[in-house]
Design brief:
- This protein has 16 helices and 20 strands.
- A hairpin with a 4-residue loop joins strand 15 and strand 16.
- Helix 2 packs parallel to helix 6 and helix 12 crosses helix 16.
- Bound molecules: flavin-adenine dinucleotide.
- Flavin-adenine dinucleotide (FAD) binds next to helix 2, strand 2, strand 3, strand 9 and strand 13.
- InterPro entries: FAD-bd, FAD-dep_Monooxygenase_BioMet, FAD/NAD-bd_sf.
Length: 454
């Protein structure tokens, strides 16, 4: 790739800057698509996997995410298979007694976009199919980004192909690292800054399983669940199950959180493992028969357990013209269902700020990336903290705190308005998360923030 000096590039406007994206997860795909839609002409995506093999599991598609997908022109195909969430039932795991029931019939009207559940593969395919139509995006699958070689006068990094061919060096003007919770680029940026990389063990792990409708068809109680527009959460001490229909109600998605015992002794690189069905049943031994009947439908070899990790808050997401995106900079516990939504919001904001760069010099691009950080850091920190807090509340064991929580659940049920201890289902929290139009805020605040960074 030809090297441009700052002088040349500043005259040519910013849309021809060379943009490299690490990772084709939700954040990377959304970055590529959002930047292409803004008219950037030279976008390359580097993904270590040889294709988009997304783990089959469900995902909640909240209105703040749907707003962006809709503007990027890829919501229609995802919505075709999605289920509107109209209610949430939070239950005591042991007895199946409902602690509260939240009705949310007016989400679409209130926020302009629905809250849906969907299949992760459908979200990824929607983003990827739309991005594939953009001629300005070039795809490099089976290519691991090993590390950053230099930051100035342009960023260069080494890519190692999976096919055994020789590593090559790539030069770009902007590097967006959407390489997930285990981010290589984050490690390099932190090392450059002399800041220790601290991956935090949450002490929690998750089972993620999917059940075909046919397996549930003979059980009326199960059939009612998959035919509903409801997210159901069963909670207990240090554990919970959350479940909802996906894929046009042909699949029932279930995921759990429980204390991490199986990974505790494993090397730090290990994140997923095939779990044992018997061990899973043991962990939830005191949960009600309905949850056990659901768990029992999982074929023995198909229990998959994930370790849940986060990272200590980062002092910065930006170094020169390199920026971190999504789980690479704000990994979160899943209890607020906002991880992918935050990654896609990051991408949309990056496209807004880079499109407003006055030129493509390193100084201007760095300022734009710092505006991105200013626009995003407070919000993502709030949501990451809220997810952790919600998890602590959901997982309370016997005692005064749990009694108070259950009183609040009951009060929310009676009033229909009050704050709900399960934060994702709480109308006040939903208002804060769903009404935030990150693209509009970026457009409104860009000039002021950019000037403040002179
Ligand atoms: C149990 C569970 C349930 C969840 N439920 C929800 C939910 O309901 N709603 C929601 O919004 N979020 C949810 N999330 C969170 C969500 O899945 C993540 O936050 C989101 O996928 C992050 O996207 P990302 O693009 O930042 O990272 P990832 O999706 O992790 O993508 C990173 C990509 O980078 C690639 N990569 C990594 N290193 C390199 C490298 N060196 N070179 C090249 N490529 C590389 C990886 O192969 C991968 O494709 C959940 C998470 C969990 C664990």
């Amino acid at each position: 790739m030809a090297m441009h000096d700052d002088q040349e590039r500043s005259g040519s406007g910013p849309t021809n800057m060379r943009i490299a994206i690490v990772g084709a997860g939700m954040g990377g795909l959304a970055c590529a698509l959002a930047l292409a839609k803004k008219g950037f002409t030279d976008i390359q995506v580097f993904e270590m996997a040889s294709d988009l093999g997304f783990v089959g599991a469900g995902i909640q598609l909240a209105p703040n995410l749907v707003r962006i997908l809709s503007r990027l022109g890829c919501w229609e195909s995802i919505e075709a298979e999605a289920t509107d969430v109209l209610e949430a039932s939070i239950r005591d795991g042991a007895s199946n007694r409902e602690l509260t029931h939240v009705h949310m019939p007016d989400i679409r009207k209130r926020y302009g976009y629905p809250h849906c559940t969907g299949h992760r593969a459908s979200l990824a395919a929607g983003l990827y199919e739309a991005a594939k139509k953009e001629p300005s995006i070039r795809w490099n699958f089976g290519c691991t980004v090993e590390g950053i070689d230099q930051y100035t006068p342009a960023v260069t990094f080494t890519v190692k192909p999976r096919d055994g061919s020789a590593p090559r060096q790539v030069e770009c003007d902007v590097l967006l690292a959407a390489d997930g919770v285990k981010s290589n680029v984050r490690a390099h940026v932190l090392a450059e800054l002399g800041v220790p990389a601290v991956v935090e063990d949450t002490g929690q792990a998750a089972y993620r399983i999917t059940l075909p409708r046919s397996a549930m068809a003979s059980d009326p109680e199960m059939l009612a669940l998959i035919d509903s527009n409801q997210v159901t959460r069963w909670i207990g001490s240090r554990r919970h199950w959350i479940a909802y229909p996906v894929a046009s109600k042909t699949i029932y998605n279930m995921s759990s959180t429980q204390p991490d015992t199986h990974f505790a002794a494993a090397p730090s690189a290990t994140y997923t493992t095939k779990g044992s069905k018997a061990a899973m049943a043991d962990v939830f031994a005191d949960f009600c028969p309905l949850v056990h009947r659901l768990m029992d439908l999982v074929p023995d070899g198909e229990v998959c357990e994930w370790k849940l990790r986060v990272h200590a808050p980062l002092p910065t997401w930006v170094r020169s013209t390199v920026a971190l995106v999504g789980d690479a900079c704000h990994p979160t516990l899943p209890h607020l269902n906002q991880g992918a939504a935050m990654a896609v919001e990051d991408a949309a904001v990056l496209a807004e700020v880079l499109a407003r760069a006055p030129d493509a010099t390193q100084g201007s691009v760095n300022r734009c990336l710092r505006v991105y950080e200013l626009l995003r850091k407070e919000r993502t920190t709030t949501l990451v903290d809220l997810a952790a807090e919600s998890g602590r509340t959901l997982h309370l064991g016997e005692g005064r705190a749990k009694e108070e929580r259950d009183r609040q659940f009951a009060e929310a049920r009676a009033s229909g308005k009050k704050a709900v201890p399960d934060k994702w289902a709480s109308p006040d929290v939903q208002e804060m998360i769903y009404s935030h139009d990150c693209m509009k805020v970026a457009a409104e605040k860009f000039d002021e923030l950019y000037r403040s960074l002179a």
